[in-house]
Design a protein that fits this description.
With 309 residues, this protein is an alpha+beta fold. It contains seven helices and 14 strands. Strand 8 and strand 9 form a beta hairpin. The longest helix is centred in the middle third of the chain and has 20 residues.
Amino acid sequence: MFRGNILPFISACSVGIGAYLGSKYERYMNQPSGMYSNAKAENYFPWTLHASSLTPYEAKPSQGSAQNSNSSQIMKYGFPSLENVRVFDDYVLAYDKRNRNAHWVFEHLAPDKLPSKQTADRKKSNFFEDKNIHEKFRSYLNDYKYSGYDRGHLAAAGNHRHSQQAMDQTFTLSNISPQVGEGFNRGIWNNLEKYVRSIARKNRNTYVCTGPLYLPRREADGKMYVKYEVIGQNNVAVPTHFFKVVAIETNAGEIEILSFVLPNQPMKDDVPLKNFLTPLDAIERASGLLMFDKIPLNKVKLMNHQKPR
């Protein structure tokens, strides 16, 4: 549906993603009662999974704990996967021990969580290693030192300014990925985060799933390869792309979904965000994740600004 929007841009960026993300919205066709069959949803995304059954966030004394986690609300529409899930006060993630990045990070935003006057001060937050990840698999502060990459948030710090503790927790390295700084993390990616917050301030509830991608590109021999850089002594993977999928509960009770893929490379700040709209089915195929499986199809009004088929 959106091939005309994304493929020219992707081609210009020479990222070789077109064929990989070219599938249609097939998940939304011939699904009378939901996006997937009830059996599959019950097998992989049980409603009974609560924070008490997952790995909690164990913070330093100055950073609080996960006792106030609202994970049931955050994960209202299902878990994309259930491997190495970590619960924080205000977001939930699944950790990829091989690549030292998150598989995905989930947030719930609402107008009352985005006050006009922020309570938290980003200058008081410091990056720290996630001691609940085994030392063989975690990333370390030294891995990013002199790497040339920013420590890029997946759950955005700016989404959690209502609480110093909530903001502090976004600085754990399990929520961080290596991102190009100038022209990406400090540019177009920041623009996307601001756009999502602007949506969340106007609607009843907004659910955000963010994560890295490692996508193939065609090399000189004509073959497709998955190739990505690693940094630091622990070989922290540098994602080739990042996705962000946003499910919006409007004030009228309807659901709208926006799904983006951005290449991890410098870009001009004025590139329209609509250029990065990508079919959700394509993101799922590329990431190996099922997103928002619990959303009933009959409630989805728009997908990337168009009616689902």
